[in-house]
Specification:
Radius of gyration: 18 Å
Order of helices and strands: EEEHEHHEHHEHHHEH
Strand order of the largest sheet: 4-5-3-6-7
Helix content: 40-55%
Largest sheet: 5 strands, parallel
Shape: globular
Number of helices: 9
Oligomer: single chain
Distance between the termini: 37 Å
Low-confidence stretches: 1-6, 12-20
Strand content: 5-15%
């Protein structure tokens, strides 16, 4: 980036000599192996290079309580957790995460980049587990207080490709993946999760951008920056439009 480039959101003056930065809440969603962590880190670097203050966080595990809940939710030795119990653990993490991390960061004018948020609950517990959507949405609203991301990047790829990526990463890193309890689910579960995500994208096209995650990371990043350029003022345009998917269902 060019040194001295303008921030994504130029600071605004309160009229009392104080300067305030505008905040932004960006979430990243996708099935297993979509590359959310990698793309989040790359986008964070780009936004910081443009002069913005950012915060990287995740669900579950983005707060002190969530760190402990994450180990319970994702550890393979936990075996089968009852659907309602799993849901309430995720929602407890979200409620605390919002209060302890997300809201203070937004109030401070930061751009919050969050690995998974409420759409994961609808995709995994709703479509994946088969829980009724109406009460699920109500439970989510109780946990998040109505706080929605300004933009959600849905990194989409075929289920088989994502699981192959996750397996390759495990072999390379010589360790079990953190989400191995979900990775161990039957292939039909993962297909239901992916379809759930795509249905959410069709329902909320103004918020959710579907990104082709089969491309190399640099091209996926370019697609994300292209979405920001179209939807937000002050973002440098890119040539990554071809990576933004329109095959929502």
């Amino acid at each position: 980036m060019v040194p001295g480039a303008a921030p994504l959101f130029p600071p605004t003056h309160t009229g009392r000599g104080q300067v305030m930065q505008k905040s932004l809440f960006i979430s990243f969603e996708g099935p297993e192996g979509a590359g959310k962590t990698t793309i989040m880190a790359m986008l964070d670097k780009e936004l910081r290079a443009l002069g913005n203050t950012t915060l990287l966080t995740r669900e579950p595990g983005g707060c002190r309580l969530g760190h402990n809940l994450r180990s319970l939710l994702l550890a393979p030795e936990m075996g089968d957790i009852a659907g309602d119990a799993e849901l309430f653990l995720f929602l407890a993490d979200r409620a605390q995460h919002i209060a302890e991390v997300v809201k203070p960061a937004l109030a401070a004018g930061k751009i919050v980049l969050c690995d998974r948020y409420a759409d994961s609950t609808i995709a995994y517990q709703g479509h994946g587990r088969g829980m009724a959507e109406a009460p699920l949405l109500m439970a989510c609203r109780l946990a998040d207080g109505g706080l929605e991301p300004d933009i959600t990047f849905l990194l989409d790829l075929p289920v088989e490709t994502g699981l192959e990526r996750a397996t390759s990463r495990n072999n390379r890193d010589k360790k079990l993946m953190e989400q191995s309890r979900f990775d161990a689910e039957a292939i039909d579960f993962h297909h239901r999760v992916r379809q759930g995500y795509l249905k959410l994208a069709a329902r909320h096209p103004d918020r959710i951008a579907v990104i082709d995650a089969t491309r190399p990371p640099a091209e996926v990043l370019a697609a994300c920056m292209s979405v920001l350029a179209h939807r937000l003022p002050g973002t440098p345009p890119t040539n990554g439009d071809e990576n933004v998917r329109d095959d929502r269902i």
